[in-house]
Amino acid sequence: MKFFTDREICYADILPPSEVRARIEVAVLNFLKILTCADPAISDLLLINRKSSNRRVSQGLLTDDDTWIFLSRSFCKRSLMRANAAKAFIRVWKVMEMCFKILLQEKRVTQRELFYKLLCVSPDCFSSQLQVNRTIQDVVSLLRCSRFSLGIMASSRGIVAGRLLVQEPDKEMVDCSECGSSGYAISGDLNLLDRLVMKTDARYIIIVEKHAIFQRLAEDRVFNHIPIILITARGYPDIATRFLLHRMSRTFPELPIMALVDWNPAGLAILCTFKFGSIGMGLEAYRYACNVKWLGLRGDDLQLIPEESFVSLKPRDLQIAKSLMSSETLQEKHREELALMVQSGKRAEIEALYFHGYDYLGKYIAKKIVQANYI
Amino acid sequence: MHPSVFSEQTVVDRAISDICILLQCSRHNLNVVSVGKGLVMGWLQFLEAGRKFDCISSPTTAYTIPVHVEEVKDIVSVAKYILIVEKESVFQRLANDKFCNANRCIVITGRGYPDIPTRRFLRLLVEKLCLPVYCLVDCDPYGFDILTTYRFGSMQMAYDAKILRVPEVQWLGVFPSDFEKYDLPQQCLLPLTAEDKRRTETLLLRCYLQKEVPEWRLELELMLQKGVKFEIEAFSVHTLSFLSDQYIPSKIQEVEVLPGNKIKS
Hints:
Chain A is of the alpha+beta class. Helix content of chain A is 38%, strand content 15%. Chain B is built from 11 helices and 11 strands.
């Protein structure tokens, strides 16, 4: 056990546009200073390494519940001096320049729009969307400010339903239990999410992996029978959904958060992303890690599922399982469940429970919650 | 329950379609619904199953299109037209630029290929409000396919086309000719991949392109001939709000000012 592990953390600040512009200006001035001094040099750009080798874990002191992953102080360089990598160096500056201009205009831009702008302004440097996305993460690493602070807007796939009232400042209160089966759409604007006023009389928060399951539960108004809030990112969670979930966990700390995922490694991976954060956006994601428990599907539910609903694990599933197994953050009980999955070589979807009737899912969730059957 | 008969999802989907054709009804009549993913914003107000959707109070906020379209009633609108956009990112761009504040319209997106609720909702709006409908898609085979799905219906659900298609849909853009007209730099043109070309050739074979909209066919052939495509986001090269401030308003004015200019409809 290590104390003060968070001294090693590297993180990206959430800043207003004027401060981000200031950081860009400082970067430019430093570069020029070194270039024009008595012993001139072209300085390298030092970026936080976004590989798993630089991944660290902050283990909760008293319980496992407060664990999250973060990136530490291992650096990689972008250098103009290395022939093959010189373009990557230039790309970082080009993106900073573009973001500076956009922030001056007080606008926001999507990654795709940024791609086109860069493509036209500097066609020799940028050839694909992937390159632009990677360079954006380089800028986040260099300036240590969040992607959203740079003026880059990512849309959210998240939706919420259930016993929650949300209110945007100066707008009407929205009752998420009256949003129908399509729910309340989570905005991609993190500033807006930060200003949402939330009230609830729920006792549990349930993360649902898939949209179809979310819709089924919302339509059946399961939250009228059990006091819950339903939230989904419709697959792998985006930053906005994680942000809102985290805010909910801070605003309503007594509400346990549980996940309802398919019985396969990808489902567990999604749970772990909500729970621990991710490396891809490691400088930002650590903030939004929440204490998420695994409600279902789990090993002890398999007896409820007919034999025919099981499908074999594919090579991709096994790859994901291997990567999860090697992660030191995986809790003991989750590890056992994963081992069972791999050993049986099978996977099953939540929909398999419909075998017992379409309203069975609500009863299943209620029973598990009442029995406190989550890990 | 019957694993030997039903091995995967596509088998079930086909069976549902067969039943619909046999009974001459729609999927929602069988209480089979899909996940709803459409969004709407603008100068519109309606009720769905007791819940009020007051988009007018906040015309730049996105609302999810209800899945049970048969429960939508009391539609009220002060819009002058309905704008369909292919992609969610374009919808977001319009929301951020507060497009609906300056333009009295309703904006809908199916976020890609439109699902059944979105198409039914659009059809309902057109029937109740009798407004012109403009469709904005990327200048590529996928965009074109989405445009034709809104207008003519999809191939897979051809049996349901009568209630799902919206013949009032007009193609607002983006056309291959817009490239020069709006001064886009060469780099924004992306080459058609082999898959794109195959797709375009398949699209050209569709019957309605001969009879109902021969002008659409010309544009598609032009795309194939030039071997290039481009996306709506390319307009951000000029300014981020070029789409909202200039492209869309000028295109709509063209259509309105020359009502005989039904060449793209």
